[in-house]
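Recap quiz, item 2
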Amino acid sequence: MPTRKSALVTGAGGFIGHHLVTYLVSRGYDVRGVDIKSPEYGASAAHEFVIADLRDEQNCLQATRGMDEVYHLAADMGGIGYITSFHAEISTNNTLINLHMLRAARESAVRRFLFSSSACVYPQHLQESADVAPLCEDDAWPADPEEGYGLEKLYMEKLCQYFMEDHGLETRVVRFHNVYGPQGTYSGGREKAPAAICRKVALAPDGGPIEIWGDGQQTRSFMYVDDCVTGIHRIMQSDYRQPLNLGTDELVSVDALVDLVCGIARKSLKKRHDPSRPQGVRGRNSDNSRLREVLGWEPATPLRTGLVPTYRWIRDRVAADALQSAATAAE
Ligand SMILES: NC(=O)c1ccc[n+]([C@@H]2O[C@H](COP(=O)([O-])OP(=O)(O)OC[C@H]3O[C@@H](n4cnc5c(N)ncnc54)[C@H](O)[C@@H]3O)[C@@H](O)[C@H]2O)c1
């Protein structure tokens, strides 16, 4: 009988990592998950789940030992409010995690190593208008990435290239564009726009106000998490060794995103824009031409379709949180 392939997922306690573990287990992999914390919203499907700080190289070595494929997703990250507020902390943590993971993967002779990069690597001057041209992979250089988080991702992309050229480590680099779905962070400061908007809509009474960061005209494209994990796995299995976008090219404004969620919730809310809050680049979209060429596939879940289970999950969590606080207050 052929032996099962083994996979390490770092960041397995986080949003995408948790979904990826479930996907790989369903495809017959033997999965080890590693994270500094357990998954917040339900048990991991991983055969082995290790709590470890991957800033420490010894922990990275132990995590990678005996693994065929490494899906490296662990990172200190959050939404725009978070990544614009803690440049030193985020850059330091992610530099340590990434360098140590790469060295450990080489030392453990893993077959393939996939790095989760981000659309934040793209030059800011290419993202100054709401009806922005989609970003293609070659646009990343000459570089002018998002401070801190984006710069560190771009440097790690280069390290992946150097480890492949100099040491023969098979690396894959994937640039995610805004991922959303159930079981993602929805409160506490690290949540991203779709989850924050779902939470605000769930909490607002029908006819009430909703606070929106920026003027609401900033644009993004959003990818449903099931498409994201399918894409990650396909890219890992492909022979393509350069960075690849993984996102959708369905560009929407933040106001339009709010309208979609309100429609799903059957609520009519009054938008109150707050231009003093961070909104990131003015517009960002993914050019999927190369992704289509390489994989013959691209993420296809329409935003409205993916928002239905996302909103319902967040609405139920918000209701459960309110019950919990009421019970605690009554004690
Ligand atoms: N979600 C998105 O829209 C998006 C967009 C672009 C790129 N990405 C990248 O995808 C990856 C996964 O993102 P996510 O949305 O699941 O984020 P997430 O924050 O939910 O998951 C990241 C996980 O990494 C873990 N981690 C942080 N520091 C660690 C450490 N020192 N040791 C071990 N684990 C540690 C966290 O505990 C967390 O569970 C990240 O690398 C992120 O930069 C995500």
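The pocket of nicotinamide-adenine-dinucleotide is lined by residues 11, 13-17, 35-37, 53-55, 73-77, 93, 97, 116, 118, 176, 178-179, 185, 192 (CB under 6 Å).
DSSP finds ten helices and 13 strands in the chain.
End of item.
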